[in-house]
Write a structure and sequence with these properties.
The protein is built from 8 helices and 8 strands. By secondary structure, it is α/β, with parallel strands linked by helices. The protein has a single domain, classed as P-loop containing nucleotide triphosphate hydrolases (Rossmann fold, 3-Layer(aba) Sandwich). The strands form 2 sheets. Strands 2-3-1-4-8 form a 5-stranded parallel β-sheet, with helices on both faces. A 3-stranded antiparallel β-sheet has the order 6-5-7. The structure holds zinc ion.
């Protein structure tokens, strides 16, 4: 299956992507990971990405598309993939359609993890990350640490990422609405949209995703 996963920040896209890619046995392709990988390997694309990121800028669409297209040309993506973080706009969605069309392929479905605005804010506001290792993450409501403010794995102090500060969250939501929300219409018109309620435990949401996709297996 060739899939795109959409949803507001805090909807659990990262978690659901990993689960879904594993169950479908397709690569999980995250643009964030791709950018970091190119930068680490010092590729020509990575040099461009690094130059933009060090100035705090957003990676432009043409460069993002080039990075995704390069990744989709790898053998493991020949029979399917799950894209996470791309496309972010209808311009990028059109670029993806062109890449696939050039290989006589098409998208199987676009899964939208749907979450009400107030729930998005509640989820993000509760996120905490370890000061020593950012892969140690917690949530005040859903995955609290054993001792308040302290990392279970290493004892490091927990804090809120700058990205998760309320003002930043509002800005990201606005960006999501203005850029990504039109994608929902785009995929709705194409008959590819699968809307999934993202409220509830991870496993339950995962089951809903599987059921939503059962109709579009190919
Ligand atoms: Zn830690």
């Amino acid at each position: 299956m060739r899939l795109v996963l959409l949803g507001p920040p805090g909807a659990g896209k990262g978690t659901q992507s990993v689960l879904l890619a594993a169950s479908l046995d397709v690569p999980h392709i995250s643009t964030g990971d791709l950018f970091r990988g190119h930068v680490e390997r010092g590729t020509a694309l990575g040099e461009q990405v690094r130059a933009i990121m060090t100035t705090g800028g957003l990676v432009p669409t043409a460069l993002t598309v080039a990075v995704v297209e390069e990744r989709l040309s790898h053998g493991d993506a020949a029979d399917g993939f799950l894209l996470d973080g791309f496309p972010r706009s209808t311009v990028q969605a059109e670029a993806l359609d062109r890449i696939l069309a050039s290989r006589a392929q098409e998208l199987s479905a676009a899964v939208l993890l749907d979450l009400p605005d107030d729930e998005v804010v509640r989820r993000i506001a509760g996120r905490r990350v370890c000061g020593r290792d950012p892969s140690h993450t917690f949530h005040q409501d859903t995955a609290p640490p054993l001792r308040a403010g302290e990392c279970d794995y290493c004892g490091g102090a927990l804090h809120r990422r700058t990205d998760d500060e309320p003002a930043t969250v509002l800005r990201r939501q606005e960006l999501y609405r203005s850029e990504t929300a039109p994608l929902v219409d785009y995929y709705l018109r194409a008959g590819l949209l699968r809307r999934v309620d993202a409220l509830g435990p991870v496993a339950e949401v995962g089951n809903r995703v599987q059921r939503a996709l059962a109709a579009s297996r190919r």
